[in-house]
Design a protein that fits this description.
- The chain is mainly alpha-helical.
- It is built from 15 helices and no strands.
- Helix 1 (6-23) packs across helix 2 (32-57).
């Protein structure tokens, strides 16, 4: 246990113990070492959430917005655009951040090179792309080999590793971009208009309604929709809060929930586990997004803590 984790670990351990005292034991963490591993994963997940708050408090380098700069960062760029009153552009950068992800070696290369049009002039920003997505798809087709050029690492982030740069296939980036734009345009031409029908809902119900409505966005499955909406929340771009961990259709988080909550030989459904995890979240104050991330990483190595960067 790292020294700077001790106080946080004691806090989370007390929360879990209090939950068990009132609700019964959590079967998957009866072993102290396994329990300690989960606690460290929860701390890591909370730290990743806090990173967004730190960014919001900083004076950010303007180079973060420039895709020609080595300092380009879509999250920082989104904050800068929001501060400049460019709401649509800020949210578009969040979409790009989620769609491409951050490759463990190539970093933001795909986001930077697509957004910056490979330095050919202009940007594939929200205005240009949403007003002529067909032109974007032709550009993507024409430049596909250049985007995937060697040498040098390239690729999508870990959660997006099965995605494609194909411009015309239903499973490719071109289709994902066009369906996202269509989703926004279905309530008008701006993101504010897209979100307007849900303004009267609670943050939790708003999250759920938007999560469901995004089924129309191609290649945006459970993880991508969850990441997109939680990122908008963490950057202060939209008041939404996940009501639960969305285990239906999940893989890693579902395996983690099963390991944590199920008795030996029991076969609880994803919805039952989702409800149980929601109770754990409500009782401990550990948010659903933190719990989902933590148990997903924990189940990969429950007995031996491994720090994951993403």
């Amino acid at each position: 246990m790292r020294a700077n984790y001790i106080t946080e670990a004691e806090r989370i351990a007390a929360l879990l113990e209090d939950f068990e005292a009132h609700n019964g034991p959590l079967p998957g963490i009866s072993d102290p070492g396994v329990r300690g591993s989960l606690i460290q994963q929860i701390i890591d997940s909370e730290q990743r959430v806090r990173y967004f708050a730190v960014l919001l408090e900083r004076e950010l380098d303007p180079a973060s917005v420039d895709p020609a700069s080595p300092g380009f960062d879509p999250l920082r760029a989104a904050i800068i655009k929001q501060r400049a009153g460019e709401y649509d552009e800020a949210i578009w950068l969040v979409f790009l951040y989620v769609h491409f992800g951050k490759h463990r070696r190539a970093g933001w290369r795909y986001v930077r090179e697509v957004y910056g049009r490979l330095g050919q002039g202009g940007l594939w920003n929200w205005s240009n792309t949403s007003n002529d997505v067909t032109a974007f798809r032709f550009w993507l087709h024409d430049n596909n080999q250049e985007l995937r050029r060697q040498p040098g690492p390239h690729g999508f982030g870990n959660h997006r590793k099965y995605e494609s740069l194909n411009a015309w296939a239903q499973t490719g980036t071109g289709s994902a971009f066009e369906s996202y734009i269509d989703w926004v345009h279905s309530e008008g031409g701006e993101h504010n208009q897209r979100f307007a029908p849900f303004v009267s809902l609670s943050p939790e119900d708003r999250f759920d309604a938007l999560f469901r409505s995004m089924r129309d966005v191609r290649r945006f499955g459970r993880i991508a929709r969850f990441d997109y909406l939680t990122t908008l929340h963490r950057l202060g771009l939209l008041e939404v809060v996940p009501p639960h961990s969305y285990l239906v259709g999940a893989t890693g988080p579902l395996a983690g929930a099963t390991m944590l909550l199920s008795q030996n030989g029991s076969h609880a459904s994803a919805r039952e586990l989702q409800s149980s995890l929601q109770n754990l979240s409500s009782a401990t104050g550990i948010s659903p997004d933190v719990l989902e991330d933590a148990i997903c990483n924990w189940q990969k190595s429950p007995a031996h803590y491994i720090r994951f960067s993403g």
